[in-house]
Amino acid sequence: MTGTEASARTIRTAVVGFGLSGSVFHAPLIAADPRYTLSMIATSNAGREAAAAAQYQDVKTVPDGQAVLEHANDVDLVVLGTPPATHYPLAKAALEAGLDVVVDKPFAVTSGQGQELVTLARQLGRVLTVFQNRRWDGDFLTLRKLLAADALGKVTRFESRFERWSPAIAKAWKARATAADGGGTLFDLGSHLIDQALQLFGPAAVVHAELKVRRSDERADDDVFLVLRHESGVISHLTMNMLCAQQAPRFRVLGSVGGFTKNGVDPQEPYIAAGGSPLDAEYGQEAPEWAGLLGRDGHLDALPTERGAYPEFYRLLADKILDGGTASDLPLPVDPTDAVEALKLIEQARELAGGRS
Question: Helices 336-353 and 185-201 sit at what angle, rounded to 10 degrees?
Fold first, then answer.
């Protein structure tokens, strides 16, 4: 494909699922990038269908992923923002229908399913990637920059947390989902924390795992603590808790010459949920009072947070698809084999913890 042909083409995209994932992350990011055409939204929820039709008036709404596949000739890319147990069958069907696929995390409910999808995409010559959007959190980008500059010296310990106060489970599918269905916070928030740790410090093994249930209607896990030992020598402590009344720092990183502590959560999700656009000048900008602290006790400097950049995922994906897809040398925004490795660590954690505790 010539540069002129690539610039003239848009990637016709269907978003399957219009809950938090589809309505706050995927659809707004896709609609904001001129190289995509948001062609179709699939949801079986009447209220969400009405919301999708109101917000994206030229977009066709259909009831489910199967209906999207029935219109496969009108679509180039399928984005799956559906419950985890549906990811493998829907992604497999979409690849076999000749479509490129984005799968929200968790990629699948087993590493075996994930590897099968990776192999199938390679065989069919289709682009397959996983929406690990937290790689473009502002705080994570800030930490990556610090590590690249060797600002902390030799890192020994990485602490990373997602802690929330959610005493009630708001989504019906989450209340029903067991670990076998991809339910629980280890699959949900843990997919992000593990991916970030592997990106920063390389391959690892789980050496300790605690999986607990605190809420009466939880069927999988909602209070999880993992210890990862990286081949690089770093120890990662990963905490995820849905019943946390007082939250600890989002990051605390300790090195031989200094440390970095960061409180708060990236503002991109709440900004879009409140009606903002990724095209707004203030999108991704964190308030100065949430700056992290760099240095040693008694010698601490406030470090402003890098601007968050979720649109970067779809920018990189468009580059890849329009440059020839799997024939292109350009990188995927997220290599799906990374997600398979994260699933292997989730399986290790469950084995160490003896399943549900």
Answer: 120
Task: Please enumerate in sequence order all residues whose Cβ is within 8 A of that of 37, keeping only pairs 6 or more positions apart, or say none.
Answer: 10, 11, 12, 13
Read off the pLDDT of residues 78-119 as tens digits, 9 standing for 90 and up: 999 999 999 999 999 999 999 999 999 999 999 999 999 999
Q: Name the H helices within the chain.
A: 3-8, 20, 27-31, 46-55, 65-69, 87-96, 111-124, 138-148, 172-176, 185-201, 268-273, 311-322, 336-353
Query: Per-residue confidence at 354, pLDDT binned at 50, 70, 90?
Result: confident
Instruction: Report in angstroms the alpha-carbon separations of 335 from 6, 130, 132, 198, 332.
Output: 23, 7, 10, 13, 6
Q: Write phi, then psi, for 187 (nearest 5 degrees).
A: -70, -40
d(CA 291, CA 280): 21
CA atoms within 13 A on the CB side of 277: 8
For residue 156, which phi and psi values (nearest 5 degrees)?
Answer: -110, -35
Coil, strand, or helix at residue 104? Answer: strand
